[in-house]
Predict the 3D structure of the following.
Amino acid sequence: MELSRLLDADAHHELLLNRGIDQGYVDGGAAVIVKTKAAKRRRRRKQVHNCLVQKSLWETRRLVAREQFHVRSLQSVDHFFQLFGHGYPAELSASEEKFLSVLVDEDISVGDGVRGRAEFYEQWRRYKQAFSVRRLSNFSARVITSDDRGCLIECYGEFEGRVTAVALETVFPSALKDEALVERLLHRRFVCPTRTLISFDSSGCLVQYDAESNVFEAVSELLDFNPDQVAKLMTDAMISEGSLLPPVDDCESETGGSAEQERAADDFSSPVTSSRSSINYILS
């Protein structure tokens, strides 16, 4: 608006000058000098105006590119959670493997100083073994920060699983001191709220994955929010920063997973499924 006003003022000034020349009020030579200076001012202002237009176009393109980057990142998050919708996938198609190989950075940060693509997938495998994850849902995802280096996406959801013998042995070892507590928890279904922060770099690679699984809330509900039992279960719980789980022995997992446990995993309608053989095994 300011440039337009100034340009209009120059045009009006030139019109008055021309009238003065025509009517003999203004010397012709002086008028030429004045008109030349006015023309230079108009050219400079026009150049400034063009620069401002170019800057506006550049900022618009940059904004559009940023929005497109956000859309692609959110789509990647959505597709990722679809692939892991039942926990660690038993198998992946060639296209799914290619998607993950491009998406997940080789040096991805998982939390608590743990890095690397192999460690990232290992954590998913441990959750599947320890909690028999059967469903992972993501309810919301939004970009909370963004700059030229990438963006940070916040996700809220939950996963559904059950308390296995492996979980009691590796994640909640203090529970093994109380047979009644073990019997109350073993094979119980639970739903655990999750909050995940996912960082993408400027090329769209997933470079940081910080998961927060609210296991405390999940087990508190299982134990009817009994503070003594919750405290006993969570004492020395082996869940580190970033909700990372300790190593799970494959042989131990297979040995502890009796046929009764497998049937219990399929029967999520039963609130409590006791298995004396499983309890005796993990307490032995």
About this structure: The longest helix spans residues 28-83. DSSP finds eleven helices and six strands in the chain.
